[in-house]
Amino acid sequence: MTADEIRKRLRSKQTQEGIGAVKSASRLEGDARQALLLGALGDKSHYVAALAAEALGEQAYKAALAMTERFVYLSEDGPTRHAGRPESPSLT
Q1: If we measure between CA atoms, which residue out of 19, 25, 21, 13 comes closest to residue 56?
Q2: How far apart are the two ends of the chain, measured CA to CA in Å?
Q3: 85: Cβ–Cβ under 8 A, 6 or more apart, which residues?
Q4: H or E segment and range at residue 73
Q5: How far apart are CA 55 and CA 34, in angstroms?
Q6: Number of C-alpha atoms within 13 angstroms, CB side, residue 33?
Q7: Contact criterion met (CB below 8 Å) for 25 and 55
Q8: Which end of the chain has the smaller Cβ count within 10 Å, N or C?
Q9: For the segment 36-89, what is each residue's pLDDT rounded down to a tens digit?
């Protein structure tokens, strides 16, 4: 299902249609996914809005895990992870 099709379904007054649209939006990748889910947060049905919030939360959780893993990887061996680059200035 395309982002435009999902957007159209999100405009429906039927709660089940909105729920299905949010589930479809949560399977998309990239900016369209986030834009559709953020828009669904304002749906009149709290069921639709709650599913959108849950999907956005999962996305944030995945991003947080990836950022944490990368931070740990880069901080494990200090400057050796930055081969060929001057040492980064302290953040403190």
Answers
A1: 25
A2: 47
A3: none
A4: helix 46-76
A5: 9
A6: 15
A7: yes
A8: C
A9: 999 999 999 999 999 999 999 988 888 888 889 888 887 777 666 665 555 555
Of 59, 51, 15, whose CA–CA distance to 33 is shortest?
59
Residue with tokens 């709290």: 46
Please check whether residue 9 is in contact with residue 25, taking contact to mean a CB–CB distance below 8 angstroms: no
DSSP, residue by residue, 5-67: HHHHHHT-S-HHHHHHHHHHHHT--SHHHHHHHHHHTT-SSHHHHHHHHHHHHHHHHHHHHHH
Structure tokens at 13: 């007054």
- The residue whose two tokens read 């990239």 is 30
Q: Which amino acid is at 55?
A: A
